[in-house]
Design a protein that fits this description.
The chain is of the alpha/beta class and about 400 residues long. About 25% of the residues lie in helices and about 30% in strands. It contains 7 helices and 19 strands. An 8-stranded mixed sheet has the order 5-4-3-1-6-8-9-11. Strands 13, 14, 15, 16 and 18 form a 5-stranded mixed sheet that branches. A hairpin with a 2-residue loop joins strand 15 (about 290-300) and strand 16 (about 305-310). Helix 2 crosses helix 3 (about 230-250). The longest helix has 20 residues, at about 105-125. It starts with 8 loop residues before the first strand and ends in a 7-residue tail after the last helix.
Amino acid sequence: MNDSDTSAFRAGADARVITPDLSTPVYLAGFDSNRRALAVHDDLFVRTVAVSEGRGEPYILTAVDSIGLPRVKANKGSRVVAATHTHHGPDTIGLWGPEEHLTGRDLNYVKRVRDAIEASQAAAVTRLVPATLVAGSTSVPSLVENFRDPEVVDDEFSVLRLLSINGETIATVMSYPCHPEVVTPENTDITADYAGHLCCGVESRDGGVAVFVSGALGGMLSPRTEIRTHAEAQRFGAVLATAVSTALADSPIEAGTVTFVRQDITMPIHNPNYELAEQLELVDSAERRDGELLTEVSFAQVGPVMFAGVPGELLPKLGLHIKAAMRRAGARVPVIVGLADDELGYILPEEDFVFPSDYRDPGKQYEESMSVGPKTGPIVVDALLSLIPEGAHV
């Protein structure tokens, strides 16, 4: 690279299959325990996009067709790994085994996924080429509703497309805040749900690698449908694939600047189930600092797109607040990257948090029963707002 290349915007991408082998038991995550996979409907993937500006370190975003991945205790640089949160993939956390007190996580499979992530990220970087981008968003209200608070819905579908100098698609990054759980909870097929159908449809039509990240889908932004079939999940994916063109219509093709920052945060644990799962060794023991749980948030900007990385399932009320802050800071397309680098469960506004009277039978307080505690929301939001450029706090 010579001096004239120092301002060059570049992009690269990679995709690889992580569908599990069903010759040994595979327990599906997201609904009831003891739901063993019996067949594969569609493959699960690791998909990665890398972008860089000049000689700067690339920002690497990897999406994994998984319920979620616990935090990796390592220096990850400017790499972010986000789970799509499909409810029909292997239990990578440990909460959905054959019985309540037995983990459903296969450590060999988790290692395979982690190895695939590292290989995909390395491959995407080796494929960096001069690029341009186009970005935009559109509303897709027909697919999502909020079961907890029907008045608060985010239906924004956001798209960033990276193009080679000759106009070919390198990657399409998409975000939509809706649980990938169209298919019935009784399903025993491996599937990435609508997110997988969306990505495959975009890749087939437009080329390149399609990377999907979940937005602020917590509490509970779920599919607006009573049809719980694979065909319905395919329809959801097709609707969003069609919306890509709408989102990008009339948006300019431009070069991109790239920035990235990450911040560790700590929070108190106010959930007996969380600590019990650790004691039973269902899940990894989370890293602590001064007795509090240690996790992280991240912020990236790629041209007109800002990405806020959130370590769990942010409720839409908080997601809309952060997106508004990014817009005030100049983002044309603000994106919440949900389940980024951790899965802490639901992240609620503190003012809406009601402690369950019984954490084992929470009733309407289900989201609270699957949350670290009431302070998680304000801690995550305050940390992200501190990372967003000046101009956001008005």
